[in-house]
Design goal:
Length: 174
């Protein structure tokens, strides 16, 4: 099965360089990014499209599929919860440590990276049991980091630079 993961288009928190738990919509640039990606993938066929339930991901998914209403959402594709860090500049944490699978540092009330990856891995393990040929997943940078860990292994545990940029797409074989 081919699994394509896309990170949602740009949102205001991306522009501001802040942690985000808000359910916000795409910026004008985010809308443009989604439209451009739609053109690049127009010849790909997907048996199913599964999105994070957050607005920025579902809106991106709707654009990519010409507003197809058959998109399924899955809670396991939500971004890693940053808890009380929401709205704070990214610099309030050591980003290498925040995205280090082997780190025990907890910044406020956030979702532990191991629990976050387990949530995404459970989604992928379940997807493996399905009989799809091609799947489109629309989610978040953190989810794309977890995909990297699932398909390429945890390696040194450093995931800061293993995520997708806004409206970037990556293909995996499941």
């Amino acid at each position: 099965m081919k699994v394509y993961i896309v990170r949602h288009g740009q949102v205001q928190y991306n522009v501001l360089g802040q942690y985000n738990t808000a359910d916000e919509d795409l910026t004008e640039l985010g809308l443009q990014q989604a439209e451009e990606l739609k053109d690049r993938i127009k010849n790909l066929y997907f048996d199913i499209v599964i999105s994070s339930p957050l607005l920025r991901a579902t809106h991106t998914a709707y654009i990519l599929t010409n507003y197809d209403n058959s998109i399924i959402t899955d809670e396991r594709l939500r971004e890693r919860s940053c808890g009380i860090l929401s709205g704070q500049p990214l610099e309030v944490t050591n980003r290498e440590e925040y995205w280090n699978y082997n780190s025990s540092i907890q910044y406020g009330i956030n979702e532990n990276i191991q629990d976050f990856f387990k949530r995404v891995f459970d989604f992928l393990d379940e997807l493996k049991t399905k009989d799809y040929k091609s799947v489109l997943i629309v989610a978040h940078s953190g989810v794309s980091k977890a995909f990297s860990g699932y398909f390429y292994g945890i390696q040194d545990g450093k995931f800061l630079n293993r995520g997708l940029k806004n409206c970037e797409i990556k293909e995996y074989e499941l």
